[in-house]
Structure formats: structure tokens, C-alpha cells
Amino acid sequence: MAKAASSSSSSLSFEPLAIGIDIGGTGTKFGIVDRNGNVLFSSEISTRGHSQVEGFIDELYNHLHTLIEKAGGTGRMRGIGVGAPNGNYYSGTVEYAPNLPWRGIIPLAKLIQNKFQLPTILTNDANAAAIGEMMYGAAKGMKDFIMITLGTGVGSGIVANGKLIYGHDGFAGELGHTIIIPKGRYHEGTGKYGSLESYASATGVKLTAIEMLEKSEEASMLRDTPKERLDSRRVYEAAIAGDKLAKEIFDFTGEILGLALANFVMFSSPEAVILFGGLTKAGDLILKPTRESMENNLIQVFQNKVKILVSHLKESDAAILGASALVWDMKA
Amino acid sequence: MAKAASSSSSSLSFEPLAIGIDIGGTGTKFGIVDRNGNVLFSSEISTRGHSQVEGFIDELYNHLHTLIEKAGGTGRMRGIGVGAPNGNYYSGTVEYAPNLPWRGIIPLAKLIQNKFQLPTILTNDANAAAIGEMMYGAAKGMKDFIMITLGTGVGSGIVANGKLIYGHDGFAGELGHTIIIPKGRYHEGTGKYGSLESYASATGVKLTAIEMLEKSEEASMLRDTPKERLDSRRVYEAAIAGDKLAKEIFDFTGEILGLALANFVMFSSPEAVILFGGLTKAGDLILKPTRESMENNLIQVFQNKVKILVSHLKESDAAILGASALVWDMKA
Predict the structure, then answer these.
(1) Domain A2-132+316-328 identical in fold to domain A141-312
(2) Nearest CA in chain A to B267
(3) What is the spatial distance between Cα B164 and Cα B143, in angstroms, rounded to a whole number?
(4) Contact between B158 and A268 using a beta-carbon 8 Å cutoff
(5) Could you tell me which of B270, B14, B250, B243 has the C-alpha nearest to residue B130?
(6) A141-312: which CATH topology?
């Protein structure tokens, strides 16, 4: 901002903008954002179309370049913020991400920076979402909160003393991979058993639905849906139509999520836990059992004081907003 | 220090000293410490002798006053630092501590300050230990680590970005109460099931020993020890003498502790976990299964890089050191 104000060059006479890119397990969202958190232009591509990351970045460039031109060209762009699973803030790399198609250590920030010729900063996708909530959303003004994203995977961003916890190596906040049910459900991507993600992700809810339908003899309208199309939206629709088994699926998921949240609360004692993602659309069907289970598992000193809030940012914007927010903190 | 240097008053011509008080579930240790971490005088009383906290503070005052006189009188004391289970740094209170004899909310810092007429600051006992390790011990120079105290209870202090995490209410870091085995062993003090403390505390190891001796038909020299005298020292002695069941007790405890540590690592990604307390005296008998279990439960990105260290501070000094270290940070 200071730079723009003190310069008379025409390319800087416009307010600077930031690019936000959110790489999810399924789709990659990107957009151009102003300092007030308005998403001016945005679009999306599949994350799954390229086995090599270079091909993915080429496709991303082609789509994003069009938006950049519409927004006034590269000269107006202050930089690029990227949120990605297993993204490392310190090194700009994505390392061994179980939910992405690229294996090993990927120098993603550097590859994007070289392609776009713009300064690029990267972090864990859920860390980016947490920054977005802190700047524009439900966590405005909070210094201690935990962001949990319930999507293809379960991600998290932890803020303590007003700062994201990155840990000694930049990888802090992988709460989706904490073990909640020892020797519990197998997780394909990690090879571990009983992680939060194996129950509270989109895949987790689907597996719970399949398991419960198989185990139970109970009538359920979910039996009319082919297995591969069972998801939290279908379960939600069945539950609000009074389907008992559908409600039990949310109760079970909420019980595990609430237990996990209790453990997280006893770690960093946040003012609130902010939930984000598809599963939260089920509202009280998932929130009520989650709250109950959290309170049941907390020791007295933590009871009845931690809020569970649902992000109110537009889902398509929140991830882009969070990633773009990284740019405003970048060193010039 | 600045005060002492700029004054010519005789009572300040000595180096200022700090008082450290560590209130544990069983005993309360206290001592007088110089700025370099030398414990000049120290002693101990039982925590369990008084059902009213005022009686406890009177006894503490009588014992500590003798030490203060020996060290040059109240005028040399910069202040008092107190570590206590469920101690709150912000409010100076101890709230609903399951391992202490006093119920409800106790304004401990205020009571001690009034009795001694010295500025008093209080925190969770394990937070105090973490500060002690950071100033004088195994965590010197670290900015991200987790301290776990394995005593009567299991306490913890979490340091991220070089600062203790206190949370929004001052109660962060109650990792002993996180649920590791859902529906697992009952914890008398909290009424919860399957917490880390119900397995990895002194009481936990004793219960595991009793359970394993009852379940198994195997010969064991531990069968010669009366139940009430089974503790980690006895189990250790049996294990190094080749007792198979004794080794299994440590394996079981290490498996649960390691699982818990994996979850903590995936939260804050520390450089090291520092263990302190009686159980660590068993050395590799407990550390080896703990390390193995931790690595087994970590996702790849965290594997083989987090150290598990044992505190090398003298046990009788460490808690006092940590509590006294709070004083040097106090606002004058």
C-alpha cells in the first residue's frame, strides 16, 4: 500500500490485488482478491487431471492468466498465496500429501513463482482457511482458536496468541491425522488406523453410511441410493425426512468429532473451534452430537466455555480468501 | 536487576533471589534460587496434610520463612513463582484440580502473596517445568517443544514460537486428560474414561501392573510384592532382573504414551518432547516402546525427526527451578 501511495507510475495507480489459490484433494479454486476481502474474479479446475505437477501448473496458469488480464494485468498483482494439504510455510514445499496425486516433496511455491513471475507464499490449506477466518470471518478478533476443515480430508489450522502455530518444521496442525479410535478404521492414504479423517471426512461419512447399512436390518431410504453416491448431503436429506439410520450416522460421526475436539481443546484451550466444509451443512444434526461428545470428554475446567462455530464465509470464496490473505503479510 | 544496580541501599547490595514453589499431588517442594539457576536452599512438605488451603499455606510459610531468613531475609526476594496442577497464569487461581485436596476455585497466588507480602505469580506445574527446561535444561535454545511430566498425575507444558501456550483462559496444556483409549480405564479424579493420565501416571502404572498380574498366569517376581506397594520402581527392578511380565507392563504403558505423543506431535510439531518424572527412570524399558509407538502412529511427514528426551535436571530441583523462573519474567 505504501508503495502504491508513494508512486506515480500508472501501473501502480490502482489498488494492489492478491491472488489466492486453494489446492484441495478434489478441486483447485483460485481467484483475485482486494484488500477488503472482495473476491473480484474466481474459477476452479480439477486437482486430479495431471499425474505430473508441472502439467497441473500449466493448466492453472492458462486459467488464472485470463482472470489476471481481466483484473488489470500482472502489474497490479502483489503476489500469490497458496493453500495446499501438507503445505510447508517455511520451505514452500508440499511434502508427502496423502490426498494429492503428486508423491514425495514438491517445491510448489517455487514452481508457481517461476511460472507466474510473482512472489509466492504457501501454507497448509487449513492454515490458509484459518487466516481467512481471522481476517474476514468467524474468528475476527480472536487470538486463540482452532479451524477444522471437513472436506475430502480433515484439515486444521491452530492459532494461539494471535499467531498460527507452524511448529519447528512448518508442519504443525495435522489434526485430521491424530488417532481418535486406536486400531479403528483403516485410512488408505496414510496406512494408519482410526484417525479423525477416517471418520469425519467426506469419505469417512460415506464409509460409515455403508457400514451402518450393512450391519443394520433397519429400513432406511438410504438403501435406495447406490453405495458410490452416498454422501453427507444424501444422509442429511434422509435425516431431515425422519430417517432413523441417517440420524445415527450423524450421531456416530459427531461422537468421534466431539471426542477429537475435546482433546484439541485440552491442548490449546481455544476460545472457539470453527468448522468449515460440506459436513457442516447438516447443521444441528451433526453439531448437536459433536457438542455433546466434546463436553462429555472435557474435564470440568474446560466445560461449557468453548464455542463450536460454523464458518459463515461463502464456501467457494473462503479458501481463496484465506490463501490470498497470506499475500498481505508477505515481506515486500 | 536494573533496580539493584541503580540503588545503593544495603538490602539491595546482594543479588536478588527468587522463591520457587512446586505444588504436586503428593508433595510440595520449595526453594530459593539465584538468577543462574542455583537452588541455594530447599525443602518439602506434604500437600495432603490440610483439608483447608489456608492451613496448608500456614505450614508452607513456617517452613519457607526459615529458608528466607537463611538466604538474607525477605528484602532479597524478588518474588514467588508457584507451579500447581490446574494453575491459571492469568487469574492466579487453581481451579477444580482433580489431584489436589482443595475443591473448587482457589485464589492461590493471592493467598500466598498476602501471607508472604511478596509479589506472586502462578502457573500450571508442568508449564513451570517447561520454563525451567527452557531456561536451564534439555530445551535450552528450543522454540517448539512439549514437556510431559509423568508423576502422580500426567502434566504438560507446550511451547510454540518460543512462548508457552496458555490459551484464551490460561488453562491450555492439560494433555494428561486427553482421551487416548475411548471407553478405556476409569479415572477417579475426573470421572472420564481412557485418559493418558489413567495409564501413564504413577497410579496408572500400578493399575496396569495389578491388572496384568490378575489376567496372566505367568510367573513373575512382582507377585511377591503386595499390591499397594507395586510402583514403577518395583516394576523396573523386576524388568532388569529379566521378569517378562514386568517388561510387558512397560511395553503396554509405552504403547499408550507413544500414541499420545504422536497425536501431540501432529498438533504442534515440536522439535522435541521432554519427559520428566519417576517413570523415566526406567530408561529404555519405557522409552523404546514409547518411541516405537510414536513413530508407528505418525504420518510420514513427521516420522524420524522428533526427539524424545529425558529431563536431566535433578528431580528435586527441576520443579523449584521452573517455578522460580516465572519470577524473572515478572513485571517489576
Answers:
(1) yes
(2) A173
(3) 10
(4) yes
(5) B270
(6) Nucleotidyltransferase; domain 5 (3.30.420)
* B174/A266 CB distance under 8 A: yes
Q: pTM above 0.90?
A: no
Question: pLDDT tens digits, residue range B84-115?
Answer: 988 999 999 999 888 899 999 999 999 999 99
Q: Which residues of A touch B181 (CB under 8 A)?
A: 182
ipTM score assigned to the predicted complex:
0.88
What Rg value do the Cα atoms of chain A yield, rounded?
20
> Where do the domains of chain B lie?
2-132+316-328, 143-312
* DSSP per position, A205-259: HHHHHHHHHHH-----GGGGS-GGG--HHHHHHHHHTT-HHHHHHHHHHHHHHHH
- Contact status, residue A107 vs residue A122, Cβ threshold 8 Å: no
| CATH 3.30.420.40 applies to domain B143-312 | yes
Phi first, then psi, for residue A106 (nearest 5°) are -110, 120
**Any residues with CB less than 8 A from the CB of A174 and at least 6 apart, and which?**
A86, A124, A156, B266, B269, B299, B301, B302
Q: Are A329 and A323 in contact (CB under 8 A)?
A: no
Model confidence pLDDT, tens digit, residues A263-278: 999 999 999 999 999 8
Contact B267 A179 (CB under 8 A): no
Question: Looking at the domain that runs over A2-132+316-328, which CATH code has it been given?
Answer: 3.30.420.40
Q: Is B23 left (phi over 0), alpha (psi -120 to 50) or beta?
A: beta
